[in-house]
Prior knowledge:
Layout: H1 6-24, H2 28-37, H3 49-54, H4 59-70, H5 74-83, H6 90-106, H7 109-125, E1 127-129, E2 135-137, H8 141-162, H9 169-186, H10 195-205, H11 213-224, H12 230-246, H13 249-255, H14 265-283
Helix pairs in contact: 1-14, 2-6, 4-8, 4-12, 6-7, 8-9, 8-10, 12-14
Amino acid sequence: MDMSQRPAQGLRERVGTSLFTHVAGPAGRQNRARIHGTPGPRWFGPERPIRTVHGDASMFIGGLSALLLQSLHPRAMAAVAAHSGFRGDPWGRLQRTSTFLAVTTYGTAEDAQRAVDHVREVHERVRGTTAAGEPYHAADPHLLCWVHVAEVDSFLRAHQRYGAHPLDGAGCDAYIADTARVARALGVPAPPVDRASLAARLAGYRPELRATPQALDAARFILREPPLPWIARGPYALLAANAVRMLPPWARAALGLRAAPYVPQDLVRLSGRALTGTIRWAMGALPPREEPAGPR
């Protein structure tokens, strides 16, 4: 390496390592090696769209947008507020979620099923009552389906807008079909398998959605009170602005969100592309994933 390139490479490695550690946790490197390096059949081969989407930096924006959208179901939000510990341990929750996505997307079929079984056990124990007196159970297939479709829609929207390699129409449908494999394992009956059925399922939930005080509190925490050092809050604010702009207009209105209202949408989108490109550049400094040769 040229001596003049070393400072930039050092910065790239520091930023990439910091991002990876925050998202994957202190055991991230060991988990990554196990997930990608363990031989055995996978649920999804290397050519599947789910690997393209879940491996892209656009997930940083898609994940934030998904959390905001998911919060609009009162029973789902009540379960999160009472049982997830998102305020007390937000990084831990993020790391558990990212590890689950990595295992089910890239890991062996055995490890993926084990991860799903663990989540189902946790869901079975999560029960309670909303402030309005409505009972909830995290294993309720109706709530599971809401969480799934809100997540898939958000991830795909983000990828199509900010991803390095947006999918064509058939690829989008194939991504939704891939995620349906995981959803069925988690207990979602007949999850959507293409864009039309995903849009129809989301529309079917609209009458149930509203911004409860818990949802508004979660939005404030996610957007205005992130547990980050001050130096990282500027880039995070750009991620958040893009995540909010990506929400359906009715969801933004319900949450009372006006992301950068005086900034042109094209400029917000440009900032999102620049930031995801920077994240992609920094994460590229991580050692390559070592996947076993042979049948997948």
